[in-house]
Design goal:
By secondary structure, this protein is mainly α. About 80% of the residues lie in helices and about 0% in strands.
Length: about 230
């Protein structure tokens, strides 16, 4: 794969698994009732923590695999299975492993429309930036697995740099989208958000199948060569 193709794969994979649009209900629910300045502060902190975590796994992930004696092919297959499950959940609109805050965001929007005060459930010291916003919403199992697999498949040093730049770019895009979360949520509505989620789920599922094929192919080839 040339660098241009790898860059497109990196950006599309990271965008699909981080799913900035899918993060909107979660972010809105977790920061309901906060001022815009405080939302911005929480978001910046969450993005910085996510950047550190994803870059750490991008460039130290291979050392981790070597330490535990895990082959790249095995990790590709495992990563594909994980991503396939996540993509299937997105396609079937199943709840994720953590609470997304969608119900709270919907209640907030309905209450604002009817001018009815609601209890947001947040105290003054509540700070969701590190957990659950950064981990596991943005830098979760899917995105960590993706950066490690991309790094393993990257074509040399330029490819490794592309993965790091791709992480930074997608996180920047995520920040821009989440800053406008309230506006986007109102414009898209519940139906629009579900359509986006299903499209991202389809992309994640296709990427997962390709990862499994990339892992199984060399393994079968090795068996054929050893048998002959």
């Amino acid at each position: 794969m040339d660098l241009t193709g790898f860059a497109l794969l990196t950006l599309s994979s990271l965008f699909a698994v981080i799913d900035p649009l899918g993060c909107i209900p979660f972010f809105t629910g977790q920061t309901a009732g906060f001022s815009r300045a405080r939302k911005r502060h929480i978001l910046v902190r969450a993005l910085l923590v996510s950047l550190f975590v994803l870059l750490a796994f991008t460039y130290a992930g291979s050392l981790l695999l070597h330490t535990f004696g895990i082959t790249v092919e095995a990790f590709r297959i495992a990563g594909g299975v994980i991503l396939f499950g996540i993509g299937l959940d997105m396609l079937q609109s199943r709840p994720r492993r953590w609470h997304t805050g969608l119900d709270q965001a919907a209640k907030l929007a309905a209450a604002e429309a009817e001018a009815v005060p609601i209890d947001h459930g947040h105290d003054h010291d509540h700070d969701p930036s590190v957990t659950p916003l950064a981990i596991p919403m943005i830098a979760g199992p899917a995105s960590i697995t993706t950066v490690m697999v991309l790094r393993a498949e990257s074509p040399g040093v330029p490819g490794a740099l592309i993965v790091g730049l791709g992480v930074a770019l997608i996180l920047l895009l995520t920040g821009i989208i989440l800053l406008a979360a309230d506006t986007v949520l109102r414009r898209l509505g519940g139906t629009g958000m579900r359509i986006v989620e299903k499209l991202m789920g389809l992309l994640v599922t296709v990427i997962a199948v390709q990862l499994v094929m990339n892992g199984v192919g060399p393994f079968i080839s090795g068996l054929v060569r050893s048998g002959s």
